[in-house]
Amino acid sequence: MPVVSRVLVIGGGIGGLVAARALRLRGIAVDLVEKEPQWTVYGVGIIQPNNFLRAMDRVGLAQDCLDNGSAFNGWRVHDAQGNVLFDPPGPRDAAPHLPANNGITRPRLHDVLIRGATDVGADIRLGTTVTAWKDDGAGVDVTFSDGSARRYDLVIGYEGAFSPTRRQLFGDDYAPHFNGQGCWRYNFPRPAEMDTGMVFFGPDTKVGLVPLSPTLMYMFIVTAEKDGTWHEGPTVTEEMRNRLKGYGGLVARLRDQITDPAAVVYRPMLTMLVDKPWHKGRVLLAGDAVHTTTPHLAQGAAMAVEDAVLLGELLGGDGTLEAALGEFMRRRLDRVRYVVECSAQLAAWELEQWSGVRNPDADQGGLLHRATHALMADY
Ligand SMILES: Cc1cc2nc3c(=O)[nH]c(=O)nc-3n(C[C@H](O)[C@H](O)[C@H](O)COP(=O)(O)OP(=O)(O)OC[C@H]3O[C@@H](n4cnc5c(N)ncnc54)[C@H](O)[C@@H]3O)c2cc1C
């Protein structure tokens, strides 16, 4: 008998959809509500490192991701003019039978995840939110924005960085904060000679090129930004192109192709960690709602998915809910703390370097190497 019989997942992002599948695979009834009336996933891509693929494999979705994406080995490192500096292989010790990385468009990943949840019987309702809930210790009575109501053994808030359920559980104790950087992204046709991920270090920015399919790739550029404003509208192509000045070679050629404002995706970088148990009674938080990380290790969604897969294992096993949630925290908190803190450190060193500060302790290459290898360990 699983620890719980019926669970509500709030939020149909990457983590929520994998949680729905992981729980259904253990025979647990799952309702999932997503506030958006349609799936609204922006068009650029996401990197799935080997530990992300291991988690997907544990719920039977890794091959589907690979079939819909583009596997690549590691990150070939260049200077701003496109000269190769070094070409380290990516670690794949988490799942040696899978590639080191997979690049996949976010819409394609979502298609895989929606199919993955619905195929095993998760009940998904779009355009629906929770309007009220009451935990009486034996269950949670939930009412929804469509007027319906139901009782659950457990409610999981997978609502992302601005989770309303986090606020209900912890008040204003936790909120994501802007770290001084932004990330600009754009899709391009993939050059025939591209055979791996590529990164280019400029004097005050960093550029990456990520394969997404045999014919598609995306560029990201990480920049210093003065505040957490979202850049949108007709000027974003020019703003992105301006930030790419100073690069030569391939990046300079791509810069001139940034012409469609609707295709520029900008996000300020946010960071936050809830550093105490992520549950109160029968209401639990997971994913970005409790650990929002900057993308320096490409591990945000990986951590949300690892949460989801472990929840499936623990809630589908024997014992009490209290013991399962205690074990969940024991196996998740230090690991996500490591991701959030290493990512924040990498960002801080970049910002120092870009502003001309010489910090003898800064060791981006060393930390990146140690962290990407450390995350291959099981948890
Ligand atoms: C620039 C950038 C690049 C990144 N690159 C990578 C990468 O390469 N690899 C990686 O692993 N991670 C990456 N990430 C991180 C990754 O995108 C997130 O960690 C991941 O999306 C978190 O998933 P989630 O399900 O927890 O939350 P989200 O993806 O934010 O999903 C939350 C969902 O909940 C819904 N929702 C919110 N409130 C409610 C409500 N009240 N009721 C119902 N539904 C609600 C939202 O509409 C949304 O669909 C990147 C992040 C950024 C900013």
UniProtKB/TrEMBL annotation:
<dbReference type="GO" id="GO:0004497">
    <property type="term" value="F:monooxygenase activity"/>
</dbReference>
<protein>
    <submittedName>
        <fullName>2-polyprenyl-6-methoxyphenol hydroxylase-like FAD-dependent oxidoreductase</fullName>
    </submittedName>
</protein>
<keyword id="KW-0560">Oxidoreductase</keyword>
<dbReference type="InterPro" id="IPR050493">
    <property type="entry name" value="FAD-dep_Monooxygenase_BioMet"/>
</dbReference>
<keyword id="KW-0503">Monooxygenase</keyword>
<feature type="domain" description="FAD-binding">
    <location>
        <begin position="6"/>
        <end position="315"/>
    </location>
</feature>
<dbReference type="InterPro" id="IPR002938">
    <property type="entry name" value="FAD-bd"/>
</dbReference>
<dbReference type="GO" id="GO:0071949">
    <property type="term" value="F:FAD binding"/>
</dbReference>
<dbReference type="Pfam" id="PF01494">
    <property type="entry name" value="FAD_binding_3"/>
</dbReference>
<dbReference type="InterPro" id="IPR036188">
    <property type="entry name" value="FAD/NAD-bd_sf"/>
</dbReference>
